[in-house]
Design brief:
The protein is of the alpha/beta class and 196 residues long. Helices cover 26% and strands 26% of the residues. The protein has an 8-stranded mixed beta sheet with strand order 4-3-2-5-1-6-8-7. β7 and β8 form a beta hairpin. The longest helix has 12 residues.
């Protein structure tokens, strides 16, 4: 059985919407995008590179898949993400069975996220990593399918925007590891506690 790991950039008040650029995600009238700019350093790059070196597969919501792959496959500066994101096996959750997937190594999981991802988790032994994909993450949280969170907690408060954790049952987490970057970001790796 695979393990689902959620990797997110969030603010101190839990906002995950639009960290990369001002126009990344303006749903709901959100105008504070790009808030993560300027916080990346060698510590955070090293931490993320370790995660990519571990193998496994990626899982995206359709919108995040298009945005993330579109951004990194058009990046002109050398970076550790473009080759990895292009070559890794990707699964894309969509309500539509006709959603087109433009990038190599991509498989569509059409239908209800809870059911399609539960089947993926049951059918693979690989680690499954989710980047972004807030709606997908909240649906999987409610279905108790998330096994761990890697949160890059930025030292800012936005006061508005879509947050990582939606309404759900209580979940206890155990801190596995934490690192503080030179820019004040705390990278915290939490495992989801489950009754034995």
């Amino acid at each position: 059985m695979g393990r689902i790991s959620v990797t997110e950039s969030i603010t101190l008040d839990g906002v995950m919407q639009g960290p990369g650029r001002p126009d990344e995600d303006m749903r709901g009238g959100f105008t504070r995008g790009g808030w993560g700019e300027g916080y990346q350093d060698q510590v955070s790059l090293q931490f993320m590179s370790e995660g990519m070196a571990g193998g496994g597969v990626m899982l995206f919501g359709r919108r995040t898949y298009e945005d993330v792959l579109g951004h990194w496959t058009s990046a002109t500066e050398p970076n550790p993400f473009t080759d990895y994101l292009t070559q890794v096996q990707k699964y894309v959750v969509s309500r539509s069975a006709t959603a087109g997937l433009a990038y190599p190594q991509s498989v569509l999981l059409a239908g209800d996220a809870r059911g399609t991802v539960r089947r993926l988790k049951d059918d693979t032994d690989a680690d499954i990593t989710i980047l972004g994909s807030g709606e997908l993450v909240r649906a999987l949280q409610e279905a108790d399918l998330v096994d761990e969170y890697i949160l890059q907690i930025h030292p800012i408060v936005l006061g508005s925007g879509s947050t990582l954790f939606g309404a759900s049952d209580r979940r206890n987490l155990t801190l596995v590891r934490s690192v503080t970057t030179t820019t004040g970001v705390i990278i915290a790796h939490y495992a989801v506690d489950r009754p034995s």
